[in-house]
Amino acid sequence: MMPPYNAVMLLAAVVASLAARGPTSTSDVAALTAKYVPWRGGATFERLRAYGGGGELAAFGLRGTFVRRMTLNGSWSDVGMMGPARTGDVVNSVAGWAVGASGQLTADSPQEAAAIRDLTRLRFAAAVLGARGVSTGKNSMLLLSY
Predict the structure, then answer these.
(1) 94 neighbors 81 (Cβ within 8 angstroms)
(2) Is 60 helix (H, G, I), strand (E, B) or coil?
């Protein structure tokens, strides 16, 4: 139930962890951020507060669709339909849960939901740049080793 792990999140996590180290690494953070923000889209990336996407997929003779949404507050959802089966992973400000192909609901632990929120926030410049009121939290490293 973890958001897809990729190089963008890894780079964002590195920038965030360097920022958390304190003043001795300010130049490291500034150097990384100076490259990272333009690479992600510059001013547009800095204004980003939510995004999502979707599409069609085909596997094992079945056709389906998926929709993924993320917000700066850490909310994340990934819902898919494949043939007759509908699955979904959701994390909001309160909890996280998944619905499997059988329809069974499984709750995330509070720590896992918090870690997913933290990693989702790293996809946004406000979190990477340490904007007021936006935090990646202490749980973001929990899933990096996943």
Answers:
(1) no
(2) coil
Sorted by sequence, the CB contacts under 8 Å of residue 117 that are 6+ apart come out as 73, 74, 75, 76, 91, 93, 137, 139
Instruction: Give 80-125 as a DSSP string.
Output: EEETTEEEEEEE-SS-EEEE-TT--EEEPPHHHHHHHHHHHHTTSH
- Please report, for the chain, the start and end positions of each structural domain, with discontinuous segments joined by +: 7-141
3-state secondary structure of 13: helix
Residue partners of 85: CB distance under 8 A and separation at least 6: 101
Residue 125 pLDDT > 70: yes
Show the tokens assigned to 106.
């499984």
Question: Alpha-carbon distance 108 to 146, whole Å?
Answer: 15
Which tokens go with 113? 């939901």
Q: pLDDT tens for residues 33-65?
A: 788 888 888 888 888 889 999 999 888 888 999
Of 27-31, 39-43, 104-108, 113-117, the poorest mean pLDDT is in: 27-31
The single-letter code of the amino acid at 141 is: M
Q: β-pairing, 50-59 with 76-82?
A: unpaired
